[in-house]
Amino acid sequence: MDLLIDPTSRLLAEMIQGTALRHRVLAGNLANVETPGYQAQDVSFSVALEEAGRLAAGGGNVPSRVQSTVTTDAEAPIRRDGSTVDLDRQMVRLSQNTGWHNAMLQILASRFTQMKAAIKGQA
Q: What span, in angstroms and rounded, lies between the C-alpha atoms of 66 and 84?
């Protein structure tokens, strides 16, 4: 199966998994919006994505896994009850993440459609 999946498609699949994880983390933040002392979390995968991009641009192999890391949101403002969950901020991030997730799904589906057409000789 690896012969049919190029590094870009593999990277897209990893990023789709990363955005799915981020969606779960952001939903957890929203579920705890009224929990005193709760520390908002986020998912970081931009550093891993940049590294994978550098490797691909340099002709190196793109890693088979791009690590997504759940971290405490250090930029979140602290409320009086000690919580760092800001409802508006979380909703914006959730909306942005959904857009990225859907865009990557569409790009990956398009790549597979192109491969299918090429295999059938319809390119």
A: 28
